[in-house]
Each structure stands twice: as structure tokens, then as C-alpha cells.
Amino acid sequence: FVGVSGSNIYANGGLGLAHYGSYVAMAENNWWGSDSGPAPYGTGNGISYGSCYDDINKVYYICHYYVDADPWLGKTISTGTQLGNTGPLSSIQAFIADPVNTANGNYSHQHTDLAIATRGLPLDFSRAYNSLNPAAGPLGYGWTHDWNMRLSVDASDGSVTISFPDGHSERWTWTGTVRQRAGRVRRADQERRHFSTCSRRTRRRTALRSQPAHLG
Length: 216
What we know:
This protein is mostly beta strands. It contains one helix and 20 strands. The chain has one helix at residues 75-80; strands at residues 15-17, 25-26, 46-47, 49-54, 59-65, 67-68, 95-96, 100-101, 108-116, 123-130, 136-137, 140-141, 143-145, 150-153, 160-163, 169-172, 184-186, 191-195, 201-206, 214-215. The strands form eight sheets. A four-stranded antiparallel beta sheet has the order 19-18-17-20, with no helix packed on it. The radius of gyration is 21 Å and the shape is globular.
């Protein structure tokens, strides 16, 4: 066994890739059926690994991977959902100290530099940092701001990835309410985010009617 890369490994009854040799099998950059990666990393088809017992804490833990599957296709998307503090997983993950996300070790920081009250939506400028986001943002590596909210469209499946002001991102699949053109995001609090044809946020306003969050 030499290695496998760029393959779709999913819908298997057992492990997606089983290997118990003396060397580590290379299986990076594959799709395992989930953005979160293969089990035990995520919920995709599993890979083989070894467990050891901790006599002090009386628990089993993973001490050896027989398959090297990191990074996998979709890891960037999966990591993006865990950044910031308003993402889809923030309600089930704990934060301590700085704050640091205890599930993934991400250190996040947010600060509002400017806030001016107006008769309508406030005029403000806030920035956010995430240690697990090494991308070169407009304010430096790992940094973004509330006017840097943007979306990108995957032409292969029509899905839309939205990058939010706190640094987290979400991928929206085609449901009939996502269009591959310049559009707007209406949040659950009825605030609409408008985007230009280059997928950059241009303005926002409050909706008058109660509607679910959508793109369109």
C-alpha cells in the first residue's frame, strides 16, 4: 500500500480505510463523506487507529493512527464553522480564559473600535481574530472585520460559503433559496446583508417582515 489521494471514500459499511501495518498509510486530501473528516476526527467513514489506557485517569485514548488522513477535503470548511463565537457549533462548545475554545484550542478575540449611534442601524467598525485561521486577512493573519463579510460560490455544486464578521464561516447548499448571483443574507434577527457582484458586503438594513434567514 503506497497511498491514496483525491478520492471519495464514503458509504462503506465499516472503515473507509483499514490498515494495521508497521508504517503509516498516507491518505491525505480525500473526501470521507463529511466536512468534519473521517472518524474518529469527524463523522465520515472511519480510519484505523490504536488505543491506549491511561492508568492515572482511567480512560482510553487514541495513541496511534495507522492512517494519515489529515488534511482531508472539507477540513477548511469544517474548521471555519468552529471559529468565532456565533457559529453553528458555538452553543455546544465551551470557552474558557482568553477565551479559548476547549474543543479545538482556537483563541478568539473581538473588539469594537468605532460605534456611532444613528437613527437607523448603528455605524460601527469591529474586528475579530481567530488563531486557527492563518489566512492573511485585511488586518493581518487571522484577522477580519465586520465589513469583510463575504460569500463565495462553488460552481460544481452551487453551494455558497459565507464568511461572517466574527471569523466563522458556513456553507449553504442548494435548497431553492440560494442563488448563484449577487444577493443578500437575511439573518434570523431580520437584518439583511447586501453583496456586490464580487461577493463583498456593501450595506445592510433591517427587514420589515418576519422571514427565516436565507440568501436570495
